[in-house]
Amino acid sequence: MIFKLEATDGRARTGSIHTTKGTIDTPVFMPVGTQASVKSLDPKDLTALNAQIILGNTYHLYLRPGVELIKDFGGLGKFMGWDGPILTDSGGFQGFSLGRLMKTDQDGIEFKSHLDGSSHLFTPEKVIDYQESLGSDIVMPLDWCVELPNDLDTLKMAVKRTTSWAERSLNVKSNDQYALFGIVQGGTEKTLRELSAKQITKLDFDGYSIGGLSVGETKSKMYDIASFTAQLLPENKPRYLMGVGSPEDLFESVAVGIDMFDCVLPTRVARNGSLFTSNGRINIVGKRFRAMNRPIEAECDCYTCMNFTASYLSHLFRAKELLGYRLASIHNLRFITNLMTNMRNSIQIGEFKDYKKRFLNEYRPTNESIRIDQKQKWLDIKNENFGK
Amino acid sequence: MIFKLEATDGRARTGSIHTTKGTIDTPVFMPVGTQASVKSLDPKDLTALNAQIILGNTYHLYLRPGVELIKDFGGLGKFMGWDGPILTDSGGFQGFSLGRLMKTDQDGIEFKSHLDGSSHLFTPEKVIDYQESLGSDIVMPLDWCVELPNDLDTLKMAVKRTTSWAERSLNVKSNDQYALFGIVQGGTEKTLRELSAKQITKLDFDGYSIGGLSVGETKSKMYDIASFTAQLLPENKPRYLMGVGSPEDLFESVAVGIDMFDCVLPTRVARNGSLFTSNGRINIVGKRFRAMNRPIEAECDCYTCMNFTASYLSHLFRAKELLGYRLASIHNLRFITNLMTNMRNSIQIGEFKDYKKRFLNEYRPTNESIRIDQKQKWLDIKNENFGK
Questions:
Q1: Which residues of chain A are within 8 Å of residue B293 when distances are taken between CB atoms?
Q2: CA of A35: which chain B residue's CA is closest?
Q3: pLDDT tens for each residue of A241-274
Q4: Are residues A33 and A154 located together in one domain of the fold?
Q5: Four-point Cα dihedral B120, B123, B124, B128, nearest 10
């Protein structure tokens, strides 16, 4: 993997990541394909919406269909029919997010499967091996992610363990077919972020991730720590802010020099009928869309907006027709990939700040109470149907 | 609408139906798009699998989003982005199949909405008006469909009322933009079928439907009555066997000179993971598919088989990924449209009987107990989530 820094505008920057499976223009948003599928979309859909790289979740794929099966099929890309680059996570975050962490010690993380309750020990070494089996192009080492806020001792331990696991991960990397990123932890403690960044950037990783954010802290705290951490990372390597992806978060993070993002938000909220527009998210089952004889977003060039009215989409959601989930997911992801293209263009001509201001002036971020509602909806579904 | 009879082979026949929205080669299978969507598929999918005409359900569309809204949008095709021909049913069958019939008398059928319990009287006149609003290309008059077996008096009444409603429907047809078909009832009583066919074919319809079959009778009885009724219908008009669509049923019915078919079976069983192959239906979550590194059906040219292994499809169903439902639906519908193409070709060269024999020799129809299981599964889902 080669990273080329191309243009800067303030701290914002554009670049390109060259992999054996294609070039990725940064800043980039990576759609999430947890279980070998970006939910409801096929590979043609992903290409059409200009997804340059997608993300797979090692924990889920390890449990089902199994990394050995995927290896036998020539890797995750071959298995799911996607021929572009793939980034895989380490599974560490799932132990945290699924609440399936049984125990963690210096050796690794022991999970309880969300499918059958069986136990699985993920060590740094195993996790590299799993991702090599998946044929990942950008691999994450096992890290220890803790929720926020948290006590200083826990945050310190997370940094210490993450560094030790990073070293062990580098030691077992068996070939140069893929890139391996280091992950910075440290919660909301700047001294710990500084310590973690120092330790991790001393190691020769191909890129650097900012982990342990978007896990319970406020938005302003998240922006502050992302900004603080980004400037501790080397200029000449890609910077990846893990798990972040609302439009406003993307702008704030690109502004401080972050290059890569992933988030389930665009597809998850799409399946709830929540769609991005330049004015903010709308709820497609709302009364005002029932007879609206134009696309959700007049300027949008996605398959959904080019072919269907808001009224039709509203009908599909009211009637709980499967097609609705796909059309909404296509729109939301295309909205985000268009946003990233526009950001890159504006950086290249030195007008990122103006573009950001203009966008955020029109875009009303989803307020905290709706966000919590949506999150609760998702948690309810998750509890019914664990791990989907 | 113009129908041209082209070739015959025994009683089997090919032809073409010319509508303002395109030509339909017969015998033809029409995918069902109950609620303005062939479940999980988009219009591009339908074109790719060579759907020449699709079916919409007046009852469902009347209730949601409403026929007036669809009329305002320029018709069902415009509303859902499908530019080919559309056949709509009259709603009569839904009163029967959804068990939502409140009462029926000579005036019409009164329904209780599956959405909110409200009452709706469907008269022959209203039903023509609704379908004109939907912009249907082939319209069905209101008929009275009764379950089988049934007593002679009920069957007689169904014939009488269906004829009277047919006359009233013809009287209110306001223009020649669409075709109107007559429907033959009469259950499994040949004398009644004869009577109904005589009465209906005396009226100047553009085509003739065989209704009241596949509603509880055995397969052999269904074949017998379809065969008996088909030869009572004029040669120069299309014959439509309503609600029939398993591979073996299609062969038997084409063999006796039927031209048009519709059925939810291919898409409904697809969503249960049941997929057509030349040897019969398979259950994709079965153990033998877990690691199968080839398509479900090696010879199939559908998007699913051209791009994905049985293993991947099996994984999607195990993981309950939405993409699985769409890929399975594409495959099953393409299997059927390919079957119809092959039947047409074999009729044209006088080899229909050979082709039928060859196909049925390899194809093991789903046995009665599995069929009943599948039906029960569907009824369970329907009772939970009525009308979907």
A1: 72-73
A2: B319
A3: 999 999 999 999 999 999 999 999 999 999 999 9
A4: yes
A5: -50
